[in-house]
Amino acid sequence: MAENGTDCDQRRIGMIKEQHNGNFTDSSLLSERKRRDREERLNILLWRQPLVTLQYFFLETLINLKEWTIKLWHRRSILVSFLLTLAVLTATYYIEGTHQQYVRYMEKKFFWCAYWVGLGILSSVGLGTGLHTFLLYLGPHIASVTLAAYECNSVNFPEPPYPDQIICPDEEPTEGSISLWAIISKVRLEACMWGAGTAIGELPPYFMARAARLSGAEPDDEEYQEFEEMLEHAETAQDFASRAKLAVQNLVQKVGFFGILACASIPNPLFDLAGITCGHFLVPFWTFFGATLIGKAVIKMHIQKLFVIVTFSKHIVEQMVSLIGAIPSIGPSLQKPFQEYLEAQRIKLHHKSDSGVPQGENWLSWMFEKLVIVMVCYFILSIINSMAQSYAKRLQQKMYSEEKTK
């Protein structure tokens, strides 16, 4: 693997030397032109050029739909098999019989798992800026289950309505029966499905770099170009960011499976570079995806889950609320909404929503709902901008091709 990478790097260095010797004309002018084109693409934003951005977005959407349709047509045997399987499952779903109880159970579990896998993919797929679904969805879900478990002294929440709404069970809980492991087990499915989704979202950089290496093409991808520049200037890198990226690249390249596992098991904003590195050095798919899946869906998720559960345990929350009240001047005014919110949640957990609950909406809940709306809207806007810029890149590449043929 390393020898193939060395040969490829030597060929690229040879091409660069030829370029400096004059075999390619005006390389500096070409790089300057590409830099200007990139700046021009980055200015295609919905709030700067709304009409152009929307036009490019719809045109890029049509092109993608056309490409996907062609790919599906070339794989029509797989598509036909999928449609037949779907038809059988649909018939099983609607035909009455004793199997319906199992069908309903599988339906509920399937959609619940698909929901969290989808949120995980949105968090790391690389479209736009990514949607931080752990902070917006999974973290609050684990926190609410933790608070309810300590309040009810049980995790036997009745279904339904859980997970739509958590309500304490009717039976009297046993004192001291709740444990940290019981809460971890209660949210393990959701957390692991979310982690699996984030692992799936890391595949595009891997496939992009692998396809570029096998085809010998030079993809117009900023992260891949940054990776190649880092390889060329590896020995002269001085700043911390470059050294960190180089350390990730060396770890993944030299250690292999366990290096990928180590990078995936900790919160690592440079993990996209690990995917590009694995694709560039032709690491086998199951080595990359297997290590990524274990690291993100098992190890990393248990670390994050444990942190949230400990943070929102009953005594920690009470201490945090009391510390807020100790802030000079503004402490009591800040402490009051937190106390009201916690009291309202306790009452809801015990079916006492009509007794003593403040009629007005708590401002913490209101702020969180608005934050979710803002984040989702920003994510959608970033996707529109990203697809519009992709179409602008198509136009620029078409212009380059036309100029070369003249």
From TrEMBL:
UniProt name for this protein: VMP1 protein
Organism: Spizaetus tyrannus (black hawk-eagle)
Gene: Vmp1
Domain of life: Eukaryota
Keywords per UniProt: Membrane, Transmembrane, Transmembrane helix
Keyword Membrane: yes
Residue ranges of the TM segments: 77-95, 115-138, 251-267, 273-294, 306-327, 371-392
